[in-house]
Amino acid sequence: MKLTTAGESHGKALVGIMEGLPAGLEINIDEIDEYLALRQSGYGRGGRQKIERDRVEILSGVRNLETLGSPLAFSVANSDYENWRECMAPEGCDTSRKRLTAVRPGHADLTGLKKYGHTDARNVLERASARSTATSVVAGTVARQYLRTLGVEVSGYVRSVCGVKDNNEYKFGELAAAKANPLFMLDGSAEAIELIDKLKAEGDTAGGVIEIRVKGLKSGFGSCMQNDAKLDARLCGALMGVQAIKGVEIGMGFGAANISGSRVHDEIFYDGGFYRRTNNAGGIEGGMSNGEEIVIRAAMKPIPTLMKGLKTVDYVTKQPAVAAAERSDVCAVCAAEIVLESVTAFVIANAVSERLGGDNMSEVIKRYGELI
Ligand code: EPS
Questions:
Q1: In a mutational test of the pocket of ligand 1, which residue from 8, 35, 48 has the highest number of ligand atoms less than 8 Å from its CB?
Q2: Among 129, 133, 138, 339, residue to substitute to test ligand 1 (most atoms within 8 Å of Cβ)
Q3: How many Cβ atoms sit within 10 Å of the Cβ of residue 353?
């Protein structure tokens, strides 16, 4: 499976093309829109989310709510385009408007300007923006629908916001309740909300840690034959590709480096089938799923657009400046949680499709059922 996306944050629309889906997959468009709405929700979002109401439009690859086996093309319109047409229209516009030269530390602005040879960071930030994560949610929700036919589910929650931590461990079935919380947290959200309010008043921003879990995936997806085919390598690469994600760990992750092997490796037992009593490996050994739940944690840095403006230098005048800020999210961990679930679903669906092939869903389901 392959996903190609395009779209500027304040352009006409975000678009994507998903290739490699088998024919006969039932597509639930309402569910895609529900995940798009969840991505827009969460405490700490800024003014832009009041303008957008994301909805997917499927342009090809689906007929009567079923995939055809052809490329699935889709779009998500940017409602804000109407307010930006005069400086964003591909057909001609006034590029002297909305120029950004007070480059923001932590954003793509400065490096992008140098790399692409522009003098207006608008030409860089429009694509670097996390707005494009809406396309990952569309493709990821289709991947989720594919995985569901095999009994594979993806879920997650927010584990910490700017140092306010939830140190509890949860069963997979308990995670769904997080979506009813304004920060997708299962514990500690009152304190985190207070902190976000304080940071907002100070013109500052917050990041956090997100946990994603995959339940029901049989063993053997991924590979131990080449490093770049390892399931953990693919998951970490894809999750690190999401805007603002700065660290990813699988299972015990960094914690495994601090204790001895006998406390890390999950011992193996047999009772009609192989099983483990612990899951420190987070469901992946030797680059392959081992049949246990996949457990991933990802660290999101604070949003780099700060209303109080960090010190910077104007790219054109070379004079000291205050970094540009018109409006900003204070905290977007909920958005990131949905995006990371979606990207995880896409990587897992891809690994399934690579191993099982299948031109139609009946073949995929039959082949998956035959796996030991
Ligand atoms: C973003 C900046 C903000 C965010 C945006 C990501 O947009 P604007 O510049 O229009 O205020 O709201 O996220 C979204 C639009 C979204 O839908 O998630 C950035 O610079 O990355």
A1: 48
A2: 129
A3: 17
Residues 184-201: tens digit of each pLDDT: 999 999 999 999 999 999
Neighbours of 108 (CB within 10 A): 19
Q: Quick one: pLDDT at residue 229?
A: 98
Cα separation of 15 and 5, whole Å? Answer: 6
Tens digits of residue pLDDT in 304-363? 999 999 999 999 999 999 999 999 999 999 999 999 999 999 999 999 999 999 999 999
Distance of alpha carbon 105 from alpha carbon 305, whole angstroms: 8
Q: Contact, 334 vs 340, CB < 8 A?
A: no
Q: Cα(45) to centroid of ligand 1, in Å? A: 9
Of 147, 127, 312, the residue nearest 213 (C-alpha): 147
